[in-house]
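Readers outside the structure-tokenisation community will struggle with the description of the input data as it stands. Showing the layout once, in full, would remove most of the difficulty. For illustration, here is how one protein appears when written out as sequence plus structure tokens:
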Amino acid sequence: MLGYIGSLTFSMLLISPDDLAGYLVTAFFTIINLLVTYLIIKFLLFKPAVKFMNKRRDKVSADLNDARNRKKEAEDLLSEGKVRIEKSTHEATAIVEDAKVQAEKQSGEILENARRESMEIISRAHKDIDRMKKAAIEEMRDEVADLSLAIAYKVVSQSIDENKQRELIDQFIGEEFEGKDRKDA
């Protein structure tokens, strides 16, 4: 087999210069065709493809940056919302505490006013009772005086024994009270 390869190489060296020139021209045109094809493909296919890939890479990069920015904004808004909620919670607690204090204060004022009014009512009632008591005593004095005068008149006008005198007093008192009851009715 080595003999065959060696004879093949030797026979190639024995190519005529015209044949060799034809092969070289063909090889030269083939290389030029390949370069032209490469340049055409490069400008028509590779450059647009590379341009498309670069645009796509830039868009993906911009989208990633936008997503990062939005994520950062969302985190900022979330932390701001948490701060606002915490602040609102504190404000609500303060409002509730203030309302409790106001309610206790109003409750105390209402109780104090009620105590004061009840004391005034009791004081007025005591004054009314004292006044009515004095009026009743005055009225009783007047009646006792009238009764005494009437008894004295009857005693003076008749001379009577002790039983008769008691009977007259009871009768007179009975008449006086019946007369008062009739006047009141």
